[in-house]
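Render this sequence as a predicted structure.
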Amino acid sequence: MVHVATLVHDDIMDGAELRRDQPTANAKWGTSISVLLGDCLFAHALRLATSFSNNAICRRIAEAASEVCSGEIVQTQRRYDLKLSTADYYRIIEMKTASLFSVACELGAFISEASPLVIGALKNFGLKVGTAYQIYDDCLDLAGTEEETGKTLGTDLRKGKFTLPVLLTLQNRQGLDLTRLRDLLLREDRVDEEFLADLLHRAGALPAAAQIARRMLGEARQSLEAVPVNRYVNGLQAIADHLIGLVDRLA
């Protein structure tokens, strides 16, 4: 529910019209109602979290929700920032996306009264999978199609959000026209998609980003080695394997 709340607010900030082949709340009802809808989802999620007798569970969910919002604030503050580093980018997506994956895996183990070793392993699994998923999603925003994804694409660059493929291209030193790219990135109007696609291709940015995501997914699978094998662990491995397949299609 916290995740859905963030999507409602994301679609407002990005001006997105489609989400899962359906009109977004913002497109359907406007900004005012959509902001309140996202707020209500956040509030209801936290109210549900208080139903656990162990206060630590509610506290961790609240911490994760706070981290997600903080990550969005940092990302918004760093819009159109050509000095954004890949380390900055990783930290932002860990906060705004991976923190929810991580707390879900952590609390699943915690509620099941698993050992600290297993709780830590699953927390790390969620962090790695969540980070890799966001990298994949950011690549889709540049290279996917709206028919394939069912959502509005190209919003990151239009809103000045520099994601991993763009950052890798900016770091490239292979005689590319980076001056023009920097000028393009700082414009607050429609991006020259043909030029950008050509530049990303020549820099090998999408395969490079996909390789990083794939490495993280490998690390996520390795973290499960600390967890006794059962059908639930097999299910988590299947999630990582499925995402590896999606990432490989990008590469």
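Summary. The CA atoms of residues 56 and 141 lie 36 Å apart. The beta strands are 18-19, 22-23.
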